[in-house]
Amino acid sequence: MRPQLASLLLLCACCVFAGPAWAAGEIVIKFSHVVAPDTPKGKAATYFKSLAEARTGGRVKVLVYPNSQLYKDKEELEALQLGAVQMLAPSLAKFGPLGLREFQAFDLPYLFDNLQQLHKVTQGPVGQQLLTKLEPRGIKGLAFWDNGFKSFTSNFPIHSPANLKGKKIRIQSSMVLAESMRAVNAVPQAMAFSEVGEALRAGVVDGTETDISNLYTSKAYLSQKHLTLTEHGYLGYAVIVNKAFWDDLPRDIRRTLETAMQEATRYEHQVALQAKDEALAKLRASGAIRITVPSAAERATFKRAMVPVHARLAGLIGKDVVQAIYKETGFKPN
Ligand code: LMR
User: Fold this and answer.
1) What does the angle CA 318 – CA 322 – CA 325 come to, to the nearest 5 degrees?
2) Whose CA is nearest to atom 1 of ligand 1?
């Protein structure tokens, strides 16, 4: 057994023998995430903390751990299931390893044209049904948070999929993202978010597909010469808690936290809407990376190459979910 897993198990056993988290008085929620505090996710985690602590009169304490301080992508999900942390907001791409492939529908290229379309899914019945699929894994889904759309970074200009031939592009660990990279001739390299900056610096990968706020706040742009605004896919999150912990909370506290989460979610969506433009302005001002907006024809070439991934992987993701999303957004594959 890996040492990290062994210590998690020990911690979990201690939690069980100690009884419910709140029995001793103060309720502590450890909220772990992998990005910077000044991203939409980071800001909303801090906002949730302030609401939760103020509204419960200090009965709840929320400890936010950004930047993979506690755990990397995969470990944080294990830690949540074992009760070592209580709250996370992993990207939807990262639920695949739990056997929840439906969440990877959100990784399908060019699925959403804008965040309004996306919200029809995440804030409606399809999104709610997806969250219930977490429960058999000991996880309760509380909300969907946004980031935005992903684009390519590289050290070479990108105008068409031909420019990506044989190039190693970092992706999150998702079969849909891997297939999407292969569709544009690239070689997908899955790695944890915390490793991306170093991998780019060391030349282990040639580029990334990333949202703009993470690109700026992680400083990964300092190792890349080009940002090509293909906006070919969506990056967003599910805010999740350890289900046993949540169900054990006194009812009044749980209700207060649910309301705080709804408000934090509205705030997060607003922040995410502005984050791309703010980060783009800072990237431009830095002069460190050249930003290119593809022409309509270039964009069409990328779309033509990547959209066939929908048909290739719909069966593996779950045709029902993919069709339900198409129905909400009016997506047409052609
Ligand atoms: C990534 O791994 O690129 C993102 O999921 C990081 C994040 O949480 O925004």
Assistant:
1) 145
2) 193
Find where tokens 């009760």 sit: 83
Q: Which of 73, 75, 196 to mutate to test the pocket of ligand 1 (most atoms within 8 A of CB)?
A: 73
- 3-state SS of 98-128 is HCCHHHHHHHCCCCCCCHHHHHHHHCCHHHH
**Helix 40-55 vs helix 251-286: angle between axes, to the nearest 10 degrees?**
150
Q: From the CA of 102, how far away is ligand 1's center (Å)?
A: 18
> pTM score, two decimals?
0.92
Specify whether the CB–CB gap between 81 and 12 falls below 8 A: no
The string of pLDDT tens digits covering residues 165-202 is: 999 999 999 999 999 999 999 999 999 999 999 999 99
Burial 231-255 (b: 16+ CB within 10 A, else e): bbbbbbbbbbbbbbbbeebeeebee
Ligand 1: residue whose CA is nearest its atom 3: 193
